[in-house]
Design brief:
Largest interface: A-B, 23 and 28 residues
Strand content of chain A: over 45%
Radius of gyration of chain A: 13 Å
Number of strands of chain B: 11
Number of strands of chain A: 11
Largest sheet of chain A: 6 strands, mixed
Radius of gyration of chain B: 14 Å
Distance between the termini of chain B: 34 Å
Structural class of chain B: mainly beta
Oligomer: heterodimer
Shape of chain A: globular
Structural class of chain A: mainly beta
Shape of chain B: globular
Strand content of chain B: over 45%
Order of helices and strands of chain B: EEEEEEEEEEE
Number of helices of chain B: 0
Distance between the termini of chain A: 41 Å
Order of helices and strands of chain A: EEEEEEEEEEE
Largest sheet of chain B: 7 strands, mixed
């Protein structure tokens, strides 16, 4: 059974710092991994999608890496801004199945 | 244009009532989903439909019945609402692909409060 864990559950950092959010999954047989952002009371916005054959994806100040063999992904945020404050969710698409399994998220607070 | 739209955004209703939540996507995707986010913010899948056919049906009470009139719509009907049904319900869509090369697009959610 696939389980997705995100550590830490919450993180506060001063504006301008670089930071890393972690995601681990128990079954390495995945098709892809997706990082989402959720703002309070809002829906989910897709940030990055990494295929199982890829090692990383970049979008602006965001970089996501994937190490399937160790069951880990990281989301790197460069030069953090107050607008980056949100909950970041990692989701893994299971092998031979259509659904994605979510972690419980990391609540990020960027201090101005 | 909103890619995945859900209505209503907020729904407050009494226990025992029957209610529906609608979802529409204009992305040309052929697979749609319902996810439930509980009070602890954990997201879990409830149903998925591919080309109007039920693909995934997790352990969800029979009071929840999805209906897909066409590929662009997936509605969720809930009978005899209970207090524990209070949550945020998210609709999502993606393209069906055995290579699973496509990500999900989520709607903005429907906050259901049962009183």
């Amino acid at each position: 059974k696939q389980e997705v864990t995100q550590i830490p559950a919450a993180l506060s950092v001063p504006e301008g710092e670089n930071l890393v959010l972690n995601c681990s999954f128990t079954d390495s047989a995945i098709y892809n991994l997706q990082w989402f952002r959720q703002d309070p009371g809002k829906g989910l916005t897709s940030l990055l999608l990494i295929q199982s054959s890829q090692r990383e994806q970049t979008s602006g100040r965001l970089n996501a890496s994937l190490d399937k063999s160790s069951g880990r992904s990281t989301l790197y945020i460069a030069a953090s801004q107050p607008g980056d404050s949100a909950t970041y969710l990692c989701a893994v698409r299971r092998n031979r199945d259509d659904k994605i399994i979510f972690g419980k998220g990391t609540r990020l607070h960027i201090l101005p | 244009d909103t890619a995945v739209s859900q209505t209503p955004k907020y729904l407050v209703t009494q226990m025992g009532n029957d209610k529906s939540i609608k979802c529409e996507q204009n992305l040309g995707h052929d697979t749609m989903y319902w996810y439930k986010q509980d009070s602890k913010k954990f997201l879990k899948i409830m149903f998925s439909y591919n080309n109007k056919e039920l693909i995934i049906n997790e352990t969800v009470p029979n009071r929840f019945s999805p209906k897909s009139p066409d590929k662009a719509h997936l509605n969720l009907h809930i009978n005899s609402l209970e207090l524990g049904d209070s949550a945020v319900y998210f609709c999502a869509s993606s393209r069906w692909d055995f290579q699973a090369n496509y990500g999900y697009t989520f709607g903005s959610g429907t906050r259901l409060t049962v009183v």
